[in-house]
Amino acid sequence: MTAYDKTDVVIVGSGFGGSIPAYHLAAGGAKVTVLERGPWLETKEFEHDYLLGSSYTRAFDFVVGDGMSVLGGNCVGGGSVVYFAAMPRAPKFVFERHGSIGRRMWPSALTRDSLEPWYDRVSESLPVSTQDWNDVSYAGGLWAAFCNHSGRTANPAPVAVDNDRCVNCNFMMAGCRFDAKRSLLTNYLPAALAHGAKIRPLHEVQRIERIDDGDYRVHFTIVDDEDYRLQSGSGTIDAKVVIIAAGAGATPVILQRSEAALGTMPHAVGRYFSGNGERLNTAIINEERVREVLGLSREDGKVYEANHIGKGPTVANWDKLDGSLPEYERYSLEQLYFPPGLGTILAQVPDGDEPRWFGVQKKEILKKWASWLTIFLMTEDDNEGVFGAPPPTGNAYRISQQMLGRGPLKYDPTPNTRHGWALADAECKEILEKDGLAKVAPWTNDVVGAYTVHPLASCRIGDDPATSALHPNHELRDHPGIFVTDSASVPGALTVNPAMTIAALAERSVPGIVRALQARGVDVTYGAPAPDGSITGRRAVGKLSLVAGS
């Protein structure tokens, strides 16, 4: 089956980078079509298990590269459906980072202060709230107690969670069936639909070409609902503007595959990939020492009680988010729940014999799964990831029916990146092992290389054409009318969860996209309220909208 259509705007992907422009452009009067390669799952379809074929595997994309593996969302709503909803704002020093290029990597017009009104807009739209200590899980409180005992501080993380709806089931990584997690399915996407936007699930974009009238033609295939290796049709859709928001692991692949038709891509397309400097450490808790030293215990004596109590990240240590520290020595440490599967495979045995990720000793710590505490480390890396030649279709060579693929990303961590990892690992170990409270070890890199759930920067914005794929307004260099608004556009590691910054940048990009559409004869305006009708954020950014794309 083949299909053909025409619209004003095609948006590739429905995560933060896709849903936010979809709402604003549709509300402003443009005809908008969103192409999403994953399924459209309803709330009732989010299952409380991690079995193959469940919402867990249907909604995820896990791509193994050479030295780096990427876990991302694969469904309508994108990463917002499977994220843990932690929404901190990036520290000010992030915007001044030099990284691997030796000079400021962010556009000169973009600072934390200039992004603040756009952060406010996102906070209002989702909305985002600051938790107090009554909202945190036992695991989060335990991490806070560890930090306090070792002379550090701890903070409840800001989250996009309705705590009145949350039942503390800890299944939010497989999608929230209570609509407590404020994914894009609860705000921007339904608002976009209300204004006439069309969302087409299971449509995987393969390439883009320029047609004779100056518009763009987007080529897609239709993916089977159960076996993502199979295709049931193909088609094209023409548009005056194309917004690519397929995620940092897929956006550059689409552009690379389009080069034959579109012409030479900017040098930075598929380069400077960042894994947000991420690491995971597993602590095996000594419950008896925790009771003796910290005076803390659960009734059953276990931190998690067979895995499912509480939320994902609820408490973070931000002591090292200090702009006076040297680059690569700044990081955050966040308590995290990671479900069975990769967590049990990649966790290493503290103080075990090498290798420590399998064998008899590993079997013994698996018996203590209910008393693990996982700490998520977000550091500064060197943007050393590079994408090789794209696969024939999709962003990876599909290995299994769902979820698993082999991708073209190559990642060889530099001494700078390894230095940041080592410092964060050492800090984590010092906090957790004080007075015999726990034993800790980083997850292994032997199985799938380094790993990230927050891929960034593979088509980043910047002032320098040699090191950035996008103009500061998110338009692809030398290809007017193509914009990238997802995590690929973020210049580098943020040292915190990136969803809030990705969303704020997407908000900031919309006025420039509106101007591009107007220049192409589309009757569209900018200025819609937040999805729920709030206008405080609109007023805050109104005077910025004229210059945001400059």
UniProtKB/TrEMBL annotation:
<dbReference type="GO" id="GO:0016995">
    <property type="term" value="F:cholesterol oxidase activity"/>
</dbReference>
<dbReference type="InterPro" id="IPR007867">
    <property type="entry name" value="GMC_OxRtase_C"/>
</dbReference>
<feature type="domain" description="Glucose-methanol-choline oxidoreductase C-terminal">
    <location>
        <begin position="451"/>
        <end position="506"/>
    </location>
</feature>
<dbReference type="GO" id="GO:0004769">
    <property type="term" value="F:steroid Delta-isomerase activity"/>
</dbReference>
<dbReference type="Pfam" id="PF05199">
    <property type="entry name" value="GMC_oxred_C"/>
</dbReference>
<dbReference type="Pfam" id="PF00732">
    <property type="entry name" value="GMC_oxred_N"/>
</dbReference>
<keyword id="KW-0285">Flavoprotein</keyword>
<keyword id="KW-0413">Isomerase</keyword>
<keyword id="KW-0153">Cholesterol metabolism</keyword>
<comment type="pathway">
    <text>Steroid metabolism; cholesterol degradation.</text>
</comment>
<keyword id="KW-0274">FAD</keyword>
<keyword id="KW-1207">Sterol metabolism</keyword>
<dbReference type="InterPro" id="IPR052542">
    <property type="entry name" value="Cholesterol_Oxidase"/>
</dbReference>
<comment type="similarity">
    <text>Belongs to the GMC oxidoreductase family.</text>
</comment>
<keyword id="KW-0560">Oxidoreductase</keyword>
<protein>
    <recommendedName>
        <fullName>Cholesterol oxidase</fullName>
        <ecNumber>1.1.3.6</ecNumber>
        <ecNumber>5.3.3.1</ecNumber>
    </recommendedName>
</protein>
<feature type="domain" description="Glucose-methanol-choline oxidoreductase N-terminal">
    <location>
        <begin position="68"/>
        <end position="271"/>
    </location>
</feature>
<dbReference type="GO" id="GO:0008203">
    <property type="term" value="P:cholesterol metabolic process"/>
</dbReference>
<keyword id="KW-0443">Lipid metabolism</keyword>
<keyword id="KW-0753">Steroid metabolism</keyword>
<dbReference type="InterPro" id="IPR036188">
    <property type="entry name" value="FAD/NAD-bd_sf"/>
</dbReference>
<dbReference type="InterPro" id="IPR000172">
    <property type="entry name" value="GMC_OxRdtase_N"/>
</dbReference>
<dbReference type="GO" id="GO:0050660">
    <property type="term" value="F:flavin adenine dinucleotide binding"/>
</dbReference>
